[in-house]
Amino acid sequence: MAAFKYNRLGDRRQESLDSEGGSAFDYNSAFDYNSTFNFESAFAYSKNYYPQIMEERTFNEPLAAKICSYILIVFNYILVIFTFPFSIKTLKTFERAVVYRIGRLQPLKGPGTIIILPLIDRWQKVDLRTKAFNVPPQQFLIGDGAGISVGATIYYRIVDVKRSVNSIQDFNHSTRVLGHSLMVKLLATKTTQQLETEKAHISEQLLEDMNVVTQMWGVEISRVDL
User: Fold this and answer.
1) Cβ neighbours around 195 below 10 Å, total
2) DSSP string spanning 34-89?
3) Whole-angstrom Cα distance, residue 105 to residue 97?
4) pLDDT tens across 117-131, in order?
């Protein structure tokens, strides 16, 4: 039962004012013409005003409101019990979970057993192991006008789980496209002799150029093989 107190000014104030001929406000002149430095507010409260609590009332919560509250509480407990088996997830040592609870990013979860709340949480599993993809051989002209066909194998891994999910929609596809475009751009300025003698240096340069971009995605390029 909820209890509320209401404050109400009693009749003592009015009786006192009526008996003494006073008022809640002092309506005397706001200026004292005898002195240029004496000023009184026109809204100064009279001393006959007593702001005291004269009465207390108790508010009883309606029965219908109590019943609705109990029904909602019981429903929430039942929902948690029935969905609990589906809420348990197990993550391996190399896995992490990014969880959004009602659209808000939660602290990183894993490894081990975690709890995902149904209908409230949206989550995504992220693999931290090193992965690789192939850039298919591309035919193009290089700096000395010769036509070549070059492909590459690129190894990468995730170093920032939250950024890999929040900063880019699909980092796998984006990393592949980035590797292809940077490889063509870099090799187009080289000659045939440079490709034969500086292959390792070109691979390192391509790795550095890719890391400048992928670091903003939470992805690190660990190796590039032309």
Assistant:
1) 18
2) T-TT-B--TTPBPTT-----------PPPHHHHHHHHHHHHHHHHHHHHHHHHHEE
3) 11
4) 777 788 999 999 999
